[in-house]
Structures are given as C-alpha cells and as structure tokens.
C-alpha cells in the first residue's frame, strides 16, 4: 500500500487529473485499488470492466511536398474579362517535410480489450491478440495486434498510465489472473479511512498550480498561429466591451432556473428519449431554458462528476449523455432526485420515471438477464439488466447500429432517505459478474414488463 504523499506525487496526480477527465487516479496511486472511471458510453462485455480511459489520438506520419525553394510565379496578363494568362513562372526545388495526420478520440483499456474510439478511426484489440506495446517518444507509442498496428499519441503526463495499464492487462491474461474478481475484492475491502484519505488528496491537488500542459506535437505550428489569432480577437473584444456601456442589472453566467418543479421538468411532454437525436435533445431543452438539465458529452459529464466532493452536491437533475460511438444519438441518462422530491420518491415511482426515457421498442427488442439488489452502508442499489433478443439483433443489424447489445437500469437510494440517483448504462449484468451477484446480491422481485410495454 503506497500512501506516502510527497509533493512530487501530488503534483503528478494533479497534472493527470487536469489532463484526463475520465479517470480518478488517486485510489490507484495510493495503492487502494483501480482508478475510478467516469466513462459512461462504453459497451462492456460480461465480466469486463474499464481499467483506464483517456483522451488520445491515432496518427500517421507521411512525407509530402510542403513548398518550393526559389519559386517564382511569373507575370499575370489580363487578356479578357475574367481571363488572365500567367507567363514566365517556374518551379524551384521542392521542399519535403513530414506531415502528421491525427484522429482524436478516446482510448479505453479493459481487462479484456484495448479500444480506440475516434471520429475517423477506431480499433478493438483483444488483450490476447496484442503482441507488442512500444513507447516511441514522450508523447506516443505503437500497439500491435496480429497484422494490425496503430500509432497512439497522448499527453506525456498520462502516457505511462496508458501503456502501463495495457501491459498490466496483458500480463494478467497471460498469468490467468481474474482482474474482474480482483476489482470486486478491492472494492469490498476499502475502508472508510482510505476513502477519506482519497477525498483529502482531491482537495490538496485542487490547490496545486499546474504548469503549462505539454503539447503533443500534432499540428502544433498551426495551433500556435491560431493561438495568436485568438489572442488578437480577444483583445479586440475587450476593447469593444470597454467601449460599450454595460448594463449593471445583467448578471452574467448566472444559471437559469425556471419555476418548474423537479418532477415537472423530468416529465415534460414529448421529452427526448435514449437513442433519440442528440442535436434535437439540445434544442428541446434549450427552449425549456432550465440549467438543471444538461445535454452533454461523455467527457464533460465525466469531468463534472469527478469534481464533485459529494454526490449530494450535484444539483443537475437530468443528464442526457451523448452516445460514445454514434455521436448523433443520446446514449445514457442520469437523474438526480433530492430535497422533498427525493424524500417522497418510491421505488415504483423511480422505475416509472427512468423507464419513461427508454424508447418505445425497448421491451420488444431487449430481454431481461438479471434483476437484483444489494446494500452498502444503508444505501440500496437496485439493478435491472437486459440484452438484445434475436429480433433486437436483427433490428440492430438492419436499422439501428447505435443499439447497445447490453443495457441496464440502476436505481440508487441513498442512506439519508432524501437522495436518489437513477442511471442507465451499457455493461452486461449491470456491471457485476454472475459470481458476485450470486454471492453478494439478492433477487429483486419486480415486474418490469408492466413498464416496458
């Protein structure tokens, strides 16, 4: 157990947190377990969990002509309206340089796979197929699986975390160690003192001033030019703002809260559903104009959740989170209930509320695999897990590639009796393996069919 907190270690953690919104590295650095992950848009397989996730990019370096030496354009002579003839031009010696094409996205490391999700490039390497992981420089490494290989770039501060966890997953597979069970064992064994120490470290790193972040070298020259342009634009804007009289009665950046109650906002007529269009959801809630609802990306949601000191500090009542691989769609949701709404909420009411965000065809194309509950220090967690049935697989292949093969609903009733968190996700069996469910959970006898018709 490594709990020695040197200033160097605190700074290392602070930098990693500033760069990566998806992972809280503190439990790992203190020797208490795996990093805490805030990545909601990934389809895990049975007995699979995310060890680490981070922003990254794939890249290809290629040589091409970037200019000429001694080149002249000659003389342009107008010979007719709209027509010019250029004469006397000649090309100089071509200048060749290395150009890096980058595709930005996220890298996800699990106990079974290494996956990259980007706009124009994706890969999914099974751990047992990976034959090499080699660091190229301070910002990049290459990973090889079978005949495929990928160059991966990221920030220097998290490169070793990424390569280290990949190698750790490979080694565990080769040695026959079950990391899924190991994680469950570590989670059960963590003490309240260790949890409090993690919270103390979070408070400490928030006070550390971080150096200017390292650059990854991808189109950095262009970035510097754009940066200068942005600075000039900001200066111009400041001049304009100073010149224009300011209305003192206007409060900038103040969250807008309507007079609608929590339940009224959560039960708006024709509200967006899971797998609905992301842009349509943004526009729908923009018209509502209440800051207690956020249509957000995975990274933005992860950053906000990680920065919370307590779940009770989150006053956003509804998150609609973008799909991880099909960004045109809503992938998952999270609902927070508090104050009198949370106190008065019943289990039946919570089920009715969360299922009202499922698409109408959910009950037709998904079948239940698990329905269980378990308790942790007075907090009760209810889980309903499902997977695509045969008709759902056909529907996915023919019309709906955005459907997750697995989907779950999790209802968390906190011990204080005044807070609930309702959420959905993609993990098989609700994120627990069958052995864990049989040993630590009990059946939750609830007829979901009445709510999915």
Short description:
The protein has 453 residues and is α+β, with helices and mostly antiparallel strands. 32% of the residues lie in helices and 30% in strands. The protein has 3 domains: 7-63 and 100-205, Pleckstrin-homology domain (PH domain)/Phosphotyrosine-binding domain (PTB) (PH-domain like); 214-243; 262-451, no CATH class.
Written account of the structure:
There is one protein chain. By secondary structure, the chain is of the alpha+beta class. The protein folds into three domains: 7-63 and 100-205, Roll (PH-domain like), CATH 2.30.29.30; 214-243; 262-451, no CATH class. Helices cover 32% and strands 30% of the residues. An eight-stranded mixed sheet has the order 12-13-14-18-17-16-15-19, with helices on both faces. A seven-stranded antiparallel sheet has the order 8-7-6-3-11-10-9. Helix 1 crosses helix 5 (192-205). The longest helix has 24 residues, at 220-243.
Helix content: 25-40%
Number of domains: 3
| Cross-sheet strand order for the largest sheet | 12-13-14-18-17-16-15-19
Please provide the count of β strands. 19
User: Count the helices. How many?
Assistant: 14
Task: Compute the average pLDDT.
Answer: 84
Largest sheet: 8 strands, mixed
Distance between the termini: 50 Å
Q: Classify the beta-strand content into a percent band.
A: 25-35%
* Low-pLDDT sequence parts: 219-223, 246-252
Bulk shape = globular
* Structural class determined from secondary elements: alpha+beta
